[in-house]
Specification:
Shape: globular
Protein name: N-acetyltransferase domain-containing protein
Number of domains: 1
Distance between the termini: 30 Å
Largest sheet: 8 strands, mixed
Order of helices and strands: EEHHHEEEHEHEE
CATH topology: Aminopeptidase
Structural class: alpha+beta
CATH architecture: 3-Layer(aba) Sandwich
Low-confidence stretches: none
Organism: Endozoicomonas numazuensis
Pfam families: Acetyltransf_3 (PF13302)
Strand order of the largest sheet: 1-2-3-4-5-6-8-7
Radius of gyration: 16 Å
CATH superfamily: Gcn5-related N-acetyltransferase (GNAT)
GO molecular function, one term: acyltransferase activity, transferring groups other than amino-acyl groups
């Protein structure tokens, strides 16, 4: 799987050799503070290796690396929901701080959302954003996601409570 994004960027499948660069770019408090606790800080090469192994064995069709000129600098992926929610997916992502503000995530999110809907038949994709991560909310809005609700004090991270903003996108051909 590979989606070219332009300017040396692409979204592609994980490789075992991605662990050193993923741990280097992911080991950043400014990245980790916006993610779930399952993304540890510090983010070591051992964490990256274990995650890559998990993805390759269990989620290779729904989790991808964001690559810049051959180096893994972030991730994007989605989790297809179960039962009556089986045509819905939750999407999540992170990007190296050194690549923020360049439009990379907007392109990656747009392309992966298109893949999820067109290739895998998803009807709805949603994302949740911690209140202080305004950049992520802007990326979602640029890709057509709408703010659907705010869950007050729904996130507990770093010994503090935060609001959770939920954004959703519904495929246009479904009523």
């Amino acid at each position: 799987m590979r989606f070219n994004l332009g300017n040396g960027y692409c979204v592609r499948s994980f490789l075992y050799g991605d662990a050193p660069s993923l741990s280097r770019h992911g080991n950043n408090l400014n990245v980790a503070k916006n993610l779930r606790d399952s993304f540890p800080h510090p983010y070591t090469i051992e964490h990256a290796r274990a995650w890559i192994q998990h993805v390759k064995e269990n989620e290779a069709d729904t989790r991808f690396v964001i690559d810049h000129e051959g180096e893994a600098i972030g991730e994007i992926g989605f989790v297809i929901q179960l039962d009556v929610h089986r045509f819905t997916a939750e999407i999540g992502y992170w990007l190296s701080e050194s690549h923020w503000g360049k439009g990379v995530m907007t392109h990656a999110l747009s392309r992966v959302t298109q893949y999820a809907m067109e290739e895998l038949g998803m009807v709805r994709i949603y994302a949740d954003v911690v209140e202080h991560n305004q950049g992520s909310g802007k990326v979602l809005e640029k890709c057509g996601f709408q703010l659907e609700g705010v869950f007050r004090k729904h996130i507990f991270k770093g010994e503090e409570y935060f609001d959770q903003y939920v954004y959703g996108l519904v495929r246009s051909d479904v009523q």
